[in-house]
Amino acid sequence: MDRLDAMRLFVRLVECGSFSAVGREEGIGQPAVSKQIAALERHLGAQLVLRNSRNVVITDAGQAFYESARQLIDDFDAVESSVGDRQQSPRGLVRVSTAPGHGRLCVTPLLGGFFQRYPQVSVEVSVSERPVDLLAEGIDLAIRHGRLLDSTLTARKWSDTDFVLAASPAYLAARGTPATLDDLDRHTCIVFARGRERYPWRFGTGAEATSYLPRGALLTGDAEHVRAAVLCGLGIAQAPHWLLAEEIRTGQAQVLLPALQPERLPLNIVYAAGRRVPMRVRVLIDYLLGQ
C-alpha cells in the first residue's frame, strides 16, 4: 500500500462522500478504492469510515485523520510544485464558498479561463447565504460581502459592490415611479429577510445616510428570489448591482432614486489566517483578483 495514495483517496472520500465517486474521479473501480481505505485503516489501527448500502459516515477518528491528512497532502503538493517540471502545475481540489446568486452570476462564468490555465485544478463551489466556518467545513476560500468582523480570516479585496433600488418597467407602469423615499410607503417592496428579521434598505452616505424598513408581501433570504421577483413585476427591491446588472443594461429593470445610492460595500476573498495557503488555492485567488 502506498500510504500517500491511500491518504489522497481517503481525503477525496470525505469530500465526495462516495466510494464510487472517488473511483470515477481516479479512473479505478469502487472495490479498489474500498480496498485501499481498508488497508489504511489496518495500518492506522482505527476505523475511519462506517460503510452501509446508502452512504458513507466518517468516524470521529476519521474526521481527525482527514484534517491532518489534508494538510500533509497540501504540504507535499507544495513541495512538488516548487521544483522541476511541476513548478507551474498546481493540482488538486479547491473548495469555494459563496452566495448562490453571486456564484452563478459572477464566479462560475470566470472558471473557464481558469481551467484552461490550470487543467489539473478542480473547483467545488459550495453555496450558502450564511457565513460558513471555513475550518469546520473544509472550505479553502470564501467570498464575503461587506465589512469583515472575523479576525481569524485573511482578506483580499476583490472589488466594491454598489447597491441599487430597482423595479421592472411593467411594475412602474402600473404603480408609478417613486421620486422620494416617502413615496416608497405607497409601493410594494420585495423584502430580504432571514426568519422574521427584515433587512433595512440603506440610502445616501456620510451625514446624509438614512435607512428605510421595507414592507411587502414577499419576504425571502435568497438573492435569486429577489431578482426573480423584480423581473416578474412583484415590486421594488434594493439589491447589489451585480444581481441585476444585465437586466439594467437591457432595460428589463430600472434603477430608482440614483441620487440616494448608499455607500459601496467591499467584496472580499477570505481564507483562514495563520495557515500556509496551498498553491492550487493561491492561483485561484490570484486569478479571480485579476478579473
Automatic annotation (TrEMBL):
Belongs to the LysR transcriptional regulatory family. Keywords: DNA-binding, Transcription, Transcription regulation. Residues 1-59 form the HTH lysR-type domain. GO terms for molecular function: DNA binding; DNA-binding transcription factor activity. InterPro entries: LysR-type_TF_proteobact-type, LysR_HTH_N, LysR_subst-bd, WH-like_DNA-bd_sf, WH_DNA-bd_sf. PROSITE patterns: HTH_LYSR. It comes from Duganella alba. This is LysR family transcriptional regulator. Pfam families: HTH_1 (PF00126), LysR_substrate (PF03466).
